[in-house]
TrEMBL record:
This is Dihydropyrimidinase. The keyword Transmembrane does not apply. PANTHER family: COLLAPSIN RESPONSE MEDIATOR PROTEIN, HYDRANTOINASE/DIHYDROPYRIMIDINASE FAMILY MEMBER. One of its GO terms (molecular function) is dihydropyrimidinase activity. The gene is hydA. It comes from the Bacteria. Keywords: Hydrolase, Metal-binding. Gene3D superfamilies: Metal-dependent hydrolases, Urease, subunit C, domain 1. It comes from Oerskovia rustica. Residues 58-457 form the Amidohydrolase-related domain. Its cofactor is Zn(2+). Its EC number is 3.5.2.2.
Length: 483
């Protein structure tokens, strides 16, 4: 078995940090050792096949992104990252596990949709992967399928209160799925936006001639997120089921979630980097049709600073448990452009699977969260929330040897090379299959230096050493947060 030794770094986990050397034995973590420990009676640096000097750097578990949409069919097109390109980009950014969403389309059997997702991913992934299942509707067949899928390691199901006629479930369907989740120990993930009200606002905006990307944001106001979040919590309470609300952006919606948590309810929320940094006016209001690059749902918020302050606060208090990316990339040319003249036809989504660790780390630099909370939000809690906590999101003996060496003295220029970047000789761009970046011009005071997945170095020295097919399917257990 190949031994890898990571020396001289500061190991950071959710509960603390310490100077330690990390020994990897094949695909697993073997030991965390005091620096220079000789108790094993051998000089590990001379017997290890690979020695990585992490002096001055942080050594953290490989990051876990529990919300990606590779190849998601949407609005007559499909998300532009395949499992091959998307998981390679994830690796570049220090994410060694993704949980993607298999999608049941109307009229399709749940099991068939899942089989299609297995086929897309199998043999193509650079990092390990699991699946959630999107239920395109809830009926007797899909309720039965929920039990079958749980037995196969798919222990979470996403429902939509938005997008009537596409992925939508009504309250009765949601209640039935939640009742099922309460009995089989799965976790319902909710896209909480009032899609019926939004459709009225969208129609009225288009009738007024308000067709630009900006109106995607104004027709999904915070009230539609807060109302749906509240309704989802009440339905979960009726069903006695836990609930996980995805991609939260409105402070009012998170306040409602936080109140339910104060009352003792098992409800959880995630947010995404776009809601922590970007604003409706600045991005969707960009000249011409450019704003389409930032069309996503929930949308970027108006007066975003007020929401962002609160979202960071809820990340500190624990009322928001996870930062995911909701990686759902579409190219500007020919994909986002489907909505020229009608914002409601712009495919919804932002690509960012490569940037989450950096963007959330900037919150550490800015004094918004601690180093330990960074690891907890990006690595440990996503793994535990979705039944992967025994293997992923921790650096402990027996866990998978997924490791990131992060350089706090390094620097990351995100996005397509700007003119200034090019002038500085910096030609680095992102590795996602997109013709633009929603994060253009972001500068991060930190850098993903080395990335290891199950003992194999994927990134080092600014180069990619991985290959499609290294990533394996992860059968997930129940969430660690249920009981
Ligand atoms: O705009 C988004 N979020 N696109 C991806 C699909 C979803 O609702 O998560
Ligand atoms: Zn969603
Ligand atoms: Zn999503
Ligand atoms: Zn680098």
């Amino acid at each position: 078995m190949a031994l890898t030794l990571i020396t001289g770094g500061t190991v950071v986990g959710p509960t603390g940090r310490s100077r330690a050397d990390v020994l990897l034995d094949g695909e697993q973590v073997a030991a965390l050792l005091r620096p220079g420990d000789t108790s094993l009676g051998v000089d590990l640096a001379s017997v290890a096949q690979t020695v990585i000097d992490a002096t001055g750097k942080y050594v953290i578990p490989g990051a876990v992104d529990p919300h990606t949409h590779m190849e998601l069919p949407f609005g007559g097109t499909a998300a532009s990252d395949t499992f091959e390109t998307g998981t390679r980009a994830a690796a570049w950014g220090g994410t060694t596990t993704i949980v993607d969403f298999a999608v049941q389309r109307t009229g399709e059997r749940v099991q068939d949709s899942l089989a299609a997702w297995f086929a897309k991913a199998e043999g193509n992934c650079a990092v390990d992967y699991g699946f959630h299942q999107i239920l395109g509707g809830v009926d007797d067949d899909s309720l039965k399928a929920m039990d079958e899928l749980v037995a196969e390691g798919i222990t979470s199901f996403k429902l939509f209160m938005a997008y009537p006629g596409v992925f939508y479930s009504d309250d009765g369907q949601i209640l039935r799925a939640m009742q099922k989740a309460a009995t089989n120990g799965s976790l319902v993930m909710m896209h909480a936006e009032n899609g019926i009200a939004i459709d009225v606002l969208v129609r009225q905006a288009l009738d007024r001639g308000d067709t630009a990307p900006y109106f995607h944001g104004t027709t999904r106001p915070w009230e539609t997120e807060e109302e749906a979040t509240h309704r989802a919590i009440m339905l979960a309470r009726l069903a006695g089921a836990p609930l996980y609300v995805v991609h939260m952006s409105a402070k009012q919606a998170v306040a409602t979630l936080a109140r339910a948590r104060d009352d003792g309810w098992n409800v959880f929320g995630e947010t995404c980097p776009q809601y922590l940094y970007l604003s409706l006016e600045e991005q969707l209001g960009a000249p011409g049709f450019e704003g389409a690059k930032w069309v996503c749902s929930t949308p970027l918020r108006s007066r975003a600073e007020e929401h962002q302050e609160e979202l960071w606060r809820y990340l500190r208090t624990g009322d928001l448990s996870v930062v995911s990316t909701d990686h759902c990339p579409f190219c500007f040319k020919e994909q986002k452009e489907l909505g020229l003249g009608d914002f409601s036809k712009i495919p919804n989504g932002i690509g960012g699977v490569e940037h989450r660790l950096d963007l959330v780390y900037q919150g550490v630099v800015d004094g918004r969260i601690s180093l330990e909370r960074w690891v907890e939000l990006c690595c440990t809690t996503p793994a535990r929330m979705f039944g992967l906590g025994d293997r992923k999101g921790v650096l402990a003996p027996g866990a998978d040897a997924d490791v990131v060496v992060y350089d706090p003295a390094g620097h990351t220029s995100i996005g397509y090379p700007t003119d200034a970047d090019t002038a500085r000789g910096n030609r680095k761009t992102h590795h996602m299959n997109m013709d633009h970046s929603a994060w253009e011009g972001f500068e991060i005071d930190g850098h993903v230096d080395v990335v290891i997945s199950r003992g194999q170095v994927l990134i080092s020295g600014g180069e990619y050493h991985g290959h499609p097919g290294h990533g394996r399917y992860l059968r997930r257990s129940h969430s660690a947060y249920l009981r």
